[in-house]
Specification:
The protein is built from six helices and 19 strands. The protein is mostly beta strands.
Length: 357
């Protein structure tokens, strides 16, 4: 039985496939393609030679659930090489449809469709549709999987569950529906929170994560696009910024990242701080710096891969590099000049020694 998408009746599609039991010439033998009842065989043991998403124009409709299609190109969907000018395409019991409500047939002459298709080269070239969209539906599908959605929550996961559905009404009144899983991160004020913080009616920004099975997961949810960008950077494996302070005994330092966010970074007991250029040389002959020397100096931090950020965004450093190039001097913080003094006293003077003038 067909899955239902966009209000298309599953019974209608099943009837079309049953009526189209005799396949297009050259696809497979009729005895192999149908059961004694005339219904198509569910599934196939033959693996496709290629699986592509194609922009196709329907040249003709020889029967229910069948079409002769021509591959074409667009800015977002180029025409792959090695395809014939036209080939037969059929729907199967597993085809998923993303077509407008009220649609009663999968193929219309001269129509343009986007089809995720399994292609078979033998005995003759043919295709079997896995998913089908009209062009507007495909554009909406791609937008869901790729673009950040900014709007208002219209449906949220139940209570504090980390599984469910999140629906956002975008600012242009369109809907974006996301799956919520254990891998979804909900952040507010640079801290990870429970999904229940974003109740119905709350303003949100959502960064999607495309799912292999189709649709999109709520990858990161935050209160604004700026907060979403900071939360996204928390997940990267390279951070750049300025070393603000260090707590040697607690094995962490505070990095003021280029995006303005301040994050704690753990470091191992033994770590070398060098320029990236010197660190690549063998043997190691470059200067090794101490944390105290590079306060308020730009650094690059390579973080441990595969590590999920702590609720406050803390990560663990794997390598730390000084930014500035080979032999770049480390400039210490400027001394504070007392009020009313034109400059600090020079070493050796009475004032420097704390003596009365």
């Amino acid at each position: 039985m067909f899955r239902r998408r966009w209000g298309v009746s599953t019974a209608v599609w099943a009837l079309l496939v049953a009526l189209g039991g005799v396949l297009l010439p050259g696809s497979v033998a009729g005895a192999q393609a149908t059961q004694s009842t005339g219904r198509p065989v569910r599934g196939t043991t033959v693996k496709p030679d290629r699986r592509l998403t194609l922009l196709l124009t329907v040249a003709s409709v020889p029967g229910p659930g069948q079409a002769i299609v021509r591959p074409i190109a667009s800015a977002s969907l180029p025409k792959p090489e090695g395809l014939p000018e036209a080939f037969p395409l059929r729907i199967t019991p597993k085809t998923v449809f993303h077509l407008p409500d009220g649609r009663s047939t999968p193929f219309l002459p001269d129509e343009t469709l986007v089809v995720r298709v399994d292609l078979f080269a033998a005995p003759t070239f043919r295709g079997e549709a896995r998913e089908m969209w009209d062009v507007p539906s495909y554009d909406a599908y791609q937008r869901l999987r790729k673009e950040v959605a900014v709007g208002t929550v219209s449906r949220a996961p139940v209570a504090d569950q980390r599984r469910g559905v999140l629906v956002v009404t975008r600012e242009d009144e369109t809907l974006a529906e996301y799956r919520v899983t254990e891998k979804s991160r909900f952040c507010r004020g640079d801290v990870e929170v429970l999904p229940s913080v974003y109740a119905v009616g709350t303003r949100v920004a959502v960064k999607p994560r495309a799912l292999p099975s189709g649709g999109a997961m709520a990858g990161i949810v935050a209160e604004s696009p700026a907060a979403l960008d900071r939360a996204y950077r928390d997940t990267l494996t390279v951070w750049r910024g300025v070393l603000e302070r260090v707590e040697i005994g607690a094995f962490y330092f505070v990095l003021r990242r280029d995006d303005g966010a301040k994050r704690r970074v753990r470091f191992p007991k033994i770590i070398r701080i060098m320029t990236e250029e010197d660190a690549k040389k063998r043997p190691l002959t470059g200067r090794i710096y101490q944390f105290a020397e590079i306060i308020e100096h730009p650094i690059l931090v390579r973080l441990v891969r595969g590590e999920r950020p702590d609720p406050d965004g803390t990560r663990t450093a794997d390598k730390i590099y000084l930014i500035g190039g080979k032999g770049s001097p480390v400039t210490p913080p400027k001394p504070v000049v007392p009020p009313g003094a034109s400059e600090l006293p020079k070493p050796g003077t009475p004032a420097a020694k704390g003596e009365a003038s």
